[in-house]
Specification:
Elements (H helix, E strand, L loop, with lengths): L1 E5 L6 H10 L4 E4 L14 H14 L4 E4 L11 H21 L3 E4 L2 E2 L5 H18 L6 E5 L7 E2 L3 H10 L6 E6 H6 L7 H14 L5 E6 L1 E2 L10 E2 L8 H9 L7 E4 L17 H16 L9
Parallel strand pairs: 1-2, 1-12, 2-3, 3-4, 4-6, 6-8, 8-9, 9-12
Antiparallel strand pairs: 5-7, 10-11
Length: 300
């Protein structure tokens, strides 16, 4: 399993590759624009070229982006839906220009009606985007969520339903977040819960849909439905489940990307510096990977 992190694009998207290399990453996630704004300035053409060159030179794979947090593909509100779909298409365009594997996106929040209504709206929004960009290769990676409020995507059945509405489109994959799994009620903190979780995912969604993991411990216990990331091994998941995950032969060709808290002011203006929190979390995952014997099914 490849180990990586979400890295800042401050100073240009190619700087994220430099930061990843500085931290010893093997995979990478970025924002292609400010995640808390609807609009973003166009990517610089020279930066696009440099980014793609640097990714090829460093061998980082996979490289994905995370879509804006403002996008809500599950909404039934006409103006918000139109705005969300437009922003979503823009995210796909940016990722395609950078040669990324996929765009990770939260399915969204139900603003009216039932969960089934919301899931149908998510699928409809993705279908609209695909019809607007039929030639693109970048994938949509549905992120399994923690289940806060009326968000959808916190059950494997939700993801399967969206895929069903899209006729199993090969352009759609899944991103599983370890914190979200625990928070939503999938108890990966022990061996039996780990086995049950991934057997369920395989049966309901299919392991062939799984493209990437987000590696985060959880500040809240199993079933809390609260999304609060914690440093690796410092939360309610603990170290052993990460060792188990990193050693699981079913995921040998996948990547795990940390989204844990970063240190404040780690970088000074005009410099690239190692973030001490990232350094520690990545080192923890590498240590666990080196310790774990590979197995075909989870063992204690």
């Amino acid at each position: 399993m490849r180990i990586g992190a979400h890295m800042s694009v401050a100073g240009g998207v190619s700087k994220a590759v430099d930061r990843a290399l500085l931290h010893g990453c093997e995979a990478l996630q970025i924002f292609c624009k400010n995640a808390n704004q609807w609009a973003g300035k166009p990517l610089d053409a020279n930066e696009i070229v440099r980014f793609r060159q640097r990714v090829e030179e460093t061998g980082l794979t996979p490289v994905v982006s995370h879509a804006s947090y403002l996008i809500n593909l599950a909404t039934s509100l006409p103006q918000l839906r139109q705005q969300s779909i437009a922003a979503f298409v823009d995210e796909l365009d940016r990722a395609e220009s950078l040669g990324l594997v996929g765009v990770v996106i939260h399915p969204g929040t139900c603003t009216a009606g039932t969960e089934d209504d919301a899931l149908r709206l998510v699928a409809g929004a993705i279908d609209t985007a695909f019809k607007e960009r039929p030639a693109q290769r970048v994938k949509v990676l549905l992120e399994h969520t923690a289940g806060q409020g009326r968000t959808v995507g916190h059950r494997f059945e939700h993801l399967a339903t969206i895929l069903g509405h899209l006729d199993g489109s090969p352009r759609v994959g899944v991103c599983l977040d370890t914190c979200h799994l625990l928070a939503s009620g999938y108890d990966i903190s022990d061996a039996s819960g780990y086995d049950d979780t991934f057997e369920s995912f395989e049966r309901i969604v299919g392991l062939d849909r799984l493209e990437v993991f987000h590696g985060n411990d959880s500040k809240r216990p199993c079933g809390s439905r609260v999304d609060r990331h914690e440093h690796i091994g410092k939360g309610f998941i603990g170290l052993e489940p990460f060792r188990r995950l990193l050693a699981d032969s079913r995921f040998a060709n996948r990547a795990i990307l940390i989204e844990t808290e970063k240190a404040r002011n780690a970088e000074r203006a005009g410099t690239l510096c190692v973030d001490p929190y990232d350094k520690k979390n990545l080192a923890t995952l590498r240590r666990l990977r080196s310790r774990g014997a590979t197995f075909s099914r989870a063992t204690p």
